[in-house]
Specification:
Elements: H1 2-55
Length: about 70
């Protein structure tokens, strides 16, 4: 009976190791996707800032500046 339980424990441990490997692989994939999405968002944000500064009628280097009234 003890040997039967030992075999069950070994089988359960092997299954747990396989499950862990699958979950770790999924986690790495999700981390890579997250990093890619962050880089893409950063590039898009910079692109939007560059375009809006180009279109800014006041010639600001940063379009988040509030005009003082002297620019009119």
């Amino acid at each position: 009976m003890l040997i039967h339980n030992l075999q069950e424990v070994k089988a359960a441990a092997a299954e747990a190791v396989k499950d862990l490997a699958v979950h770790e692989k999924q986690q790495v994939g999700l981390e890579e996707r997250s990093k890619h999405a962050k880089n893409k968002a950063k590039k898009l944000k910079k692109s939007v800032q560059d375009v809006s500064c180009f279109l800014c009628p006041f010639g600001h280097t940063s379009c988040f500046m509030v005009p003082t009234g002297r620019e009119y």
